[in-house]
Design a protein that fits this description.
The complex is a heterotrimer of chains A (496), B (279) and C (300). With 496 residues, chain A is of the alpha+beta class. Chain A has 23 helices and 19 strands. Chain C has 13 helices and 2 strands. In chain C, helix 1 runs antiparallel to helix 13. Chain C is flat. The chains are: A alpha+beta (496), B mainly alpha (279), C mainly alpha (300). Chains B and C meet through helix 1, helix 3, helix 4, helix 5 and helix 6 of B and helix 1, helix 3, helix 4, helix 5 and strand 2 of C.
Chain lengths: 496, 279, 300
């Protein structure tokens, strides 16, 4: 309930500030052309099309505004125009293709592709939609979500659409090397100009900006940061048996032994999506290797024959003695039912699990995965801009919403992740739940390493190889063979 | 004929098997009519205590975070009807020619075409996608229709050929003596007699195309044009969709072909026999 | 008159020409193209047609996942074809005995055929979900428990030793009715006199089946084998909807792996390789059958 109240408060404040397609109404005192007005307001007549588009958009919902049919029209005295704010106008000019006259008339759709279909995620997305609709009420938002965790299904749906030249207007893209799988130089629009216009290159942390850059360009606007290496645990069970969250693997396995005797699943695991177990493995890797070594795995400076990898595989192998036997029938969220029902004690999952626990009203405890204190395995969701988007102008506003502070606060409070922006004030931070507040603190001081299962560390073909190797390991438990497979995967990806 | 006990045993066995075949339908129906509060994976065999249409409503029209199947059912209909009609028409024409008008190499041609029915469609997916893309039909329902028409030619031709082969020679001879040529015989003799053949082909094609998944998921990726099989798979694969909604969705997706089968089953059977028993 | 015949000859060729061309391009042309792609270097989203020889095939056969899918395909095909034939035959034999409400039974046994593999997969995923010791059983396991047969419970598709067998159970459920229909029609076609004659000669019912009925049903068995066989080799939809690849890829099949490789990992050339391998396997089954049927055509 508190969340709802805060959320509404944010909306009200934002509404009062009249954000984003912030602009000002302008009533003409004498007949003028758009070029004149642009010159007067912006000091440059080139912004005429931006003014035309902004006014026409407003006119679709508020008939007191003028409807402009031609760029060179002389508007009569008394005509009411909407002058957009400078950033949006500049972005418009950067994006607009002068051959696309239809873009000057407002309206249209915004097809948003993502895989955010679960509780907190869907609510976060809705919050962004709501903000967007406030500033751009003339646009119809089409929520083109495709179910399937970590987006494995979504990506399979998106690629043929990109190839066919019929992509959604904007779509969810993980920050990092995932973009390589979309051949961005062919299918996506680089966003460097928008970064400069909206000041994003100043307000996102440098580590994140490094991650966002591929082949020297930015391809998406990040909305959040998620942490992958979180250990969730049932507080009641721990209290009952006098346990505390393990700081290292020895303690972890001691706890597992105690719980196994009591008939409670010590560590719950899911793998119906095929990615949940590899996700667990990447967090174990982050505990047996130093942050530099871990990063090096993906750049080639750390060989996969490193004993840290062997150790990680041994730990996973031992863990399999303590997991629920039906893991291959569970997805990341259905297995959390064990914890909610008090039948399972622990689970390793990214902090989107927090959204699930909140929606179910479970008071869950959290800690970094054993051995990863001080390490933040990060992933970030961004939105990309396909070159062949059908409604390119509408995308500008969407990216602006995603990159704005108001948007990021509204979204992340619901989603269970933290804003990517660095300019969140302490008062604003206090609105987030305790887990997220601690997460924000960790983000500021921990060593950041990229997640591999969520598209940051490696291109998708490598991610698939990594995933396949670990999936097989769950059954074969063959440490040497799997390590060899991981070595081969790295060679295939880097050696090429 | 047989002793009472043996007869009784026979009926018991038959009923047991019938239960085995009906068991999934029981689960489908029972789960679909449960309300969300009552649905529980660990009590799936219990009949619903309260009768609720909620899951059908959500399966059709969507809920929090997911779209319903209603637009996709429409897509399936828009795809299936033209594809079925066109492939039946083509099959009728081809079947007639192969049955009655032997030209040199007809048999070989027919066998080559038949092979097309058996190939794994994965072998043609990639060039199919590229071709459809180049003619601008990729990701569209007309593209799917074209695909189904072309890959339906072998089976429809086969069914019609077997069917027309049963038309008595005398009828055809009589018409020829009257001066009818190829098209004349078709129009005057074959077509009027074709109703049973069309019934079989239309039902068979309707069922096959409605139930297709591979072409649908490869070609019609845009959620707006997906047929119901793809949408159902997405619905069922999503972890936020309550599983009574998933069951309701499966029931809805299966309803058209089930109804066709129940009411027109006779022709459906004939299609099976015609298609696979004979050469 | 002769002119008319000639005209009709030409017309007949012309009328089948569009279909023939369509098949030529969309079947044979595409197969050729896919074969070429399988020898190319196209492993990113953007096509690259440079020739790399058999490199893709080599990589496939070194991929443990691919080898597992081949093994699964063998297991699945054996179980599915064998199980459907046996079950279908038994049901046909039972139904052939002048049963009341035969039509009803037939309808019940046959209706799964009208369903999409996706629907079947969705339902059987829940039916064969084993549940767990902590949370309780569900599905078939729960049913077995309720009937006092709890010791028969297994992990179904969550158990890597079973995996694809669970998929076969669902597939047999779907297709055995078709086999039953075939055999029933065949049984009905066997003249009662033959059976009577054998009975008079002192043969038992079982012997009649072995020496009279089954041999006469051979063409049907053969036909069913072909149809079931080729469906089995192409199995894809059922795996997608029911289990996905499963633990340790125990439910994975080549057709599924091909789709993932091509449309998820962008490895178009490798995916094409699997597609061609699949085609070769299917051809081994189908081509002899087609040649046999072609020869029969020419004879009649």
């Amino acid at each position: 309930m508190r969340k709802v109240v805060w959320f509404l408060a944010v909306l009200v404040v934002v509404g009062l500030l009249g954000w984003a397609q912030a602009g000002t109404p302008l009533v003409l005192d004498k007949p003028s052309s758009l070029a004149d007005i642009s010159l007067k307001v912006f000091g440059d007549s080139a912004y005429a099309p931006a003014i035309m588009r902004a006014t026409n958009s407003k006119a679709l919902v508020d008939h007191s505004f003028a409807r402009i049919s031609r760029l060179d029209e002389i508007l009569p005295a008394g005509a009411k125009l909407w002058v957009p704010d400078a950033a949006w106008a500049k972005a418009f000019l950067a994006v607009w293709d002068p051959n696309r006259v239809e873009d000057l008339f407002g309206g249209g759709k915004l097809v948003v592709g993502s895989w955010w279909t679960a509780g907190g995620e869907a609510e976060g997305l809705e919050a962004l939609f709501a903000l967007y609709r406030e500033s751009f009420p003339d646009v119809v938002i089409v929520n083109a979500t495709v179910a399937g965790g970590a987006g494995f299904v979504f990506k399979a749906v998106l690629k043929p659409r990109l190839i066919a030249g019929d992509p959604p207007d904007t779509f969810q893209l993980h920050a990092g090397l995932e973009v390589e799988g979309y051949s961005p130089e062919v299918y996506l629009r680089p966003l460097d100009d928008l970064y400069a216009i909206f000041g994003w290159d100043k307000v996102f942390p440098p580590d994140l900006l490094d991650l966002m850059r591929y082949e020297g360009h930015y391809w998406g606007v990040p909305v959040n940061i998620h942490r992958s290496n979180v250990l969730w645990y049932n507080k009641e069970i721990f209290a009952r048996y006098g346990l505390k969250p393990p700081a290292n693997w020895d303690e972890f396995f001691q706890i597992c032994e105690v719980l196994k005797e009591k008939g409670i699943v010590p560590i719950t695991l899911a793998n119906a999506g095929g990615w949940e177990a590899p996700h667990l493995f990447e967090t174990i890797l982050a505990s047996t290797l130093t942050p530099e070594e871990y990063r090096g795995l993906w750049t080639g400076t750390t060989p996969w024959t490193h004993p840290g990898v062997t150790q990680a595989l041994e730990i996973l192998k031992k863990m399999l003695d303590y997991v629920n036997p039906d893991y291959s029938a569970h997805t990341w969220d259905t297995v959390l039912e064990y914890i909610a029902a008090g039948r399972g004690a622990m689970n390793v999952m990214g902090d989107w699990a927090m959204g699930w626990f909140m929606a179910k009203g479970v008071d869950v405890g959290w800690a970094p995965v054993p051995g990863t204190k001080g390490v933040f395995v990060a992933l970030s969701d961004t939105f990309a801009f396909p070159k062949r988007a059908s409604n390119p102008i509408n995308v500008i506003g969407w990216l602006a919403v995603c990159g704005s502070k108001e948007g990021q606060i509204a979204f992340n409070m619901r989603k269970g992740s933290i804003p990517a922006r660095t300019d969140i004030t302490p008062e604003e931070k206090a609105q987030f739940n305790p887990y997220l507040q601690s997460c924000m603190e960790d983000w500021a001081r921990d060593a950041i390493v990229p997640s591999v299962m969520h598209g940051a560390a490696a291109p998708e073909s490598w991610v698939v190889d990594f995933k396949d190797a670990i999936n097989l390991f769950l059954v074969t438990k063959d440490v040497a063979g799997t390590q060899a497979a991981l070595v081969a995967a790295a060679k295939a990806a880097l050696g090429k | 004929m047989k002793l009472r006990p043996a007869r009784l045993l026979l009926y018991i066995v038959l009923i047991a098997f019938a239960l085995y075949y009906l068991m999934p339908v029981y689960v489908l129906v029972v789960t679909s009519f449960k309300s969300f509060a009552e649905v529980n994976l660990y009590r799936m065999w219990n009949p619903p205590r309260t009768f609720s249409l909620e899951s059908f409503r959500r399966a059709l029209f969507g809920g929090m975070g997911y779209q319903g199947l209603a637009p996709n059912i429409l897509n399936s209909v828009i795809m299936v009807v033209p594809a079925t009609l066109i492939s039946a028409a083509l099959g009728s024409l081809n079947g007639y020619i192969f049955a009655r008008w032997q030209f040199r190499g007809a048999n070989i041609l027919f066998t080559l075409a038949l092979f097309g029915m058996f190939i794994p469609y994965q072998s043609v997916l990639i060039p199919l996608v590229q071709t459809l893309k180049s003619i601008g039909l990729y990701g569209t329902i007309p593209g799917l229709i074209l695909t189904h028409v072309i890959y339906g030619i072998p089976i429809t031709t086969l069914i019609f050929r077997n069917y027309y082969a049963t038309v008595p020679k005398e009828l055809v001879e009589a018409a020829r003596i009257d001066g009818a040529g190829l098209l004349g015989v078709y129009r005057r003799i074959m077509l009027p007699l074709s109703l049973p053949g069309f019934a079989v082909v239309l039902i068979w094609q309707f069922t096959s195309i409605w139930n297709d998944f591979l072409f649908a998921v490869t070609i019609a990726q845009n959620p707006a044009v997906q047929p119901v099989t793809v949408a159902l798979n997405n619905l069922a694969g999503s972890f936020i969709v309550e599983w009574n909604v998933q069951m309701a969705g499966a029931l809805l997706a299966a309803l058209p072909t089930l109804l066709v089968y129940i009411f027109l089953g006779r022709y459906f059977m004939r299609g099976l026999l015609a298609g696979s028993l004979k050469g | 008159m002769w002119l008319k015949r000639k005209r009709d000859q030409v017309l007949s060729v012309l009328l089948v020409l569009p279909s023939a061309l369509a098949i030529l391009v969309f079947v044979y042309g595409f197969i050729a193209l896919t074969t070429y792609v399988s020898f190319s270097n196209w492993n990113r989203l953007v096509p690259d047609y440079s020739f790399v020889g058999a490199a893709n095939y080599l990589r496939l056969f070194q991929n443990p996942r691919f080898l597992i899918t081949l093994r699964n395909l063998g297991v699945f095909t054996g179980l599915f074809v064998g199980g459907s034939l046996v079950l279908g035959f038994l049901l046909a034999v039972f139904l052939d005995r002048r049963i009341k409400a035969e039509g009803l039974f037939r309808t019940i046994y046959l209706y799964p055929l009208a369903l999409s593999f996706i629907v079947t997969g969705v339902v059987w995923r829940w039916l064969l979900n084993p549940g767990s010791p902590q949370m309780g059983s569900t599905g078939i396991n729960l049913l077995l428990e309720m009937m006092g047969l709890g010791f028969l419970k297994t992990g179904w598709y969550t158990d890597p030793r079973i995996g694809i067998i669970a998929v076969a159970v669902a597939a047999i459920w779907q297709m055995s009715g078709y086999v039953m229909a075939m055999y029933l029609a065949g049984l009905r076609g066997i003249p009662e006199e033959l059976r009577e004659a054998a009975r008079v000669d002192g043969a038992s019912e079982l012997q009649i089946y072995r020496y009279v009925v089954l041999p006469l049903l051979r063409p049907i068995t053969f036909g069913a084998l072909i149809v079931l066989g080729h469906i089995s080799l192409k199995i894809y939809d059922l795996v997608v909807a029911m289990t996905g690849p499963g633990p340790g890829y125990s439910c994975d099949v080549p057709a599924y792996f091909m789709w993932e490789l091509t449309f998820r990992a962008n490895r178009f050339a490798q995916g094409a390789g699997i597609a061609i391998i699949l085609l070769v396997i299917v051809s081994i089954l189908i081509v002899p059958y087609l040649r046999y049927s072609l020869r029969r055509e020419v004879e009649t």
